[in-house]
Design a protein that fits this description.
Strand content: 15-25%
Structural class: alpha/beta
Number of helices: 19
Number of strands: 14
CATH topology of the largest domain: Rossmann fold
CATH class of the largest domain: Alpha Beta
Distance between the termini: 19 Å
Radius of gyration: 25 Å
Length: 474
């Protein structure tokens, strides 16, 4: 009689497709013979509820919006009752459509004498048309000529920020309850919560099934925003949540040594296993530099608090290199406006994004990769972004912020230069220092490729994850 495969159920608060860490870990376990299911979130209209990603089953749940459905500014008893009634009818129509139809017909007969009046029909048609127009507009790609891009964003008021955080907290809690129910039905042997915003689901699933639980924290979650970017509601909720739940885990995993030490010191838990965010081995010969200035690449998210504004400004001081920005996110519009205001559009190219699996290949078109993370909070102070290791795998010299974890990688392996990410002139000097010295640039690029192929790749790193799971499944 064959032995049943050990089943792993992971949780992540995104659509899974573009999360390299989750996909690498899930693929490693599936490749080692585990049955792996990942519970994620449907974020796009075309996201399938169930999808196979290389032998890993992905199940996407709808993201709830608790406060929006209750209309936060109008929390009257009538609004709460109406929301509860509508939700109950929606569930009834899905579970028992024929019974729901009988109730609906009876209601129409009593209220309207058997037929809906013209004004009700017209109102329903108008609302349907309005919803269809909204969906069509949302599906249209945003262009640089639209009002949303040409007008600079207005910072939120304190009330707006509070309402946004209230929505984030309540909707995340509701999502965790949905995930816990779905995970309980999976009857997994090990549950694996990626980050604090899914830990509640993991703890509930463990308590209901008696399975083991892995807490894989990619961030110091409550400390990932600078002061003022989030309210005390958000920060206090997640601080209390982590303190209340972290002790329920059977094993801990994180992305770097500093995060492991900080978490263990804060909560008195065992030191987490460090699994670095390194890519799959995909090395190729170094590209030959072309004529003209060297190419310094930034790829990643376009977001505030990432040091991207000083990086754009550094182009004013570059003499031997030009910048290529390849990213995603609505903040890219603001970065383009900044480049135009500074008059550096001829030195900064905004390249289209590429799929996650093509990041390393496309990075080989450059010679230098830039990690401009500022020390805006404790989490970024200890950052080891994915792009660092992707640049190394592409054979790029790296210019990075002079922060502890980045410094340790850059200096020990002699793969680039450090700078103050707040100072555009310092960023430019570090880039130009490599770009203007062909021998130094070639040496650092060779060192980068050697470090990636010999050590800093997933084929090496995944052994630690498989050893951990062998112990959990024993």
């Amino acid at each position: 009689m064959s032995r049943r495969r050990v089943k792993v159920c992971m949780f992540v608060n995104n659509r899974v497709t573009n999360d390299p860490r989750v996909r690498r870990e899930a693929a490693a376990l599936a490749g080692a013979g585990y049955e792996v299911v990942v519970l994620g979130v449907a974020e796009r209209p075309d996201d399938p509820p169930v999808e196979d990603l290389g032998g890993v089953t992905v199940r996407r749940l709808p993201r709830p919006s608790v406060m929006n459905s209750l209309a936060v500014p109008r929390l009257s008893p009538r609004a709460v009752l109406d929301a509860a009634r509508d939700r109950a009818l929606q569930r009834l129509s899905g579970a028992h459509p024929r019974f729901y139809g009988l109730l609906r017909d009876a209601y129409v007969g009593v209220r309207y004498g058997g037929a809906l009046p013209p004004e009700v029909v017209a109102l329903a048609a108008a609302r349907a048309a309005e919803a269809a127009a909204g969906l069509a507009a949302a599906a249209e790609p945003t262009t640089a000529t639209t009002t949303a891009i040409t007008e600079p964003p207005r910072p939120p008021t304190r009330r707006e920020l509070f309402e946004e955080d209230l929505e984030l907290v309540t909707s995340c809690a509701a999502l965790n309850l949905h995930m816990a129910r779905a995970a309980t039905d999976e009857r997994a042997d090990v549950y694996h919560a990626h980050d604090l915003d899914t830990l509640l689901a993991g703890v509930l699933a463990k308590r209901r099934t008696g399975a083991r639980l892995v807490y894989d924290f990619h961030e110091l979650f409550p400390d990932q925003w600078p002061d003022g970017a989030r309210t005390e509601l958000w920060r206090g909720y997640y601080q209390r949540l982590e303190r209340a739940l972290i002790g329920a885990a059977d094993a801990y995993v994180t992305v770097g040594d500093a995060l492991a030490r900080t978490s263990a010191r804060t909560y008195g838990t065992p030191l987490a296993l460090v699994l670095r965010n390194v890519p799959f081995l995909q090395a190729a010969p170094l590209s030959t530099p072309g004529a003209g200035p060297r190419v310094a690449l930034y790829h990643g998210g376009y977001q505030p608090f990432r040091g991207l504004e000083p990086l754009i400004e550094s182009a004013r001081h570059l003499r031997h290199a030009r910048l290529v920005m390849r990213g995603v996110g609505g903040y890219g519009a603001e970065l383009r406006r900044l480049a135009a205001r500074l008059g550096v559009e001829d030195r900064v190219t905004f390249a289209p994004p590429v799929p996650m699996l093509e990041l390393v290949r496309s990075a080989r078109e450059a010679e230098i990769g830039v990690c401009p993370f500022p020390s805006s909070c404790l989490n970024t102070y200890y950052a080891q972004p994915n792009k660092l290791y992707e640049y190394l795998m592409a054979g790029l010299a790296v210019v990075a912020s002079d922060l502890p974890e980045l410094r340790a990688v850059i200096t020990s392996r002699r793969v680039g230069a450090l700078c103050d990410p707040r100072d555009p002139r310092a960023i430019a000097a570090a880039i130009d220092g490599l770009a203007a010295d062909p021998r130094l640039l070639a040496e650092t690029r060779q060192n980068a490729l050697r470090a990636a192929t010999e050590e800093l790749n997933w084929e090496v790193e995944q052994r630690k994850l498989l050893d951990l799971y062998a112990r959990l499944a024993a």
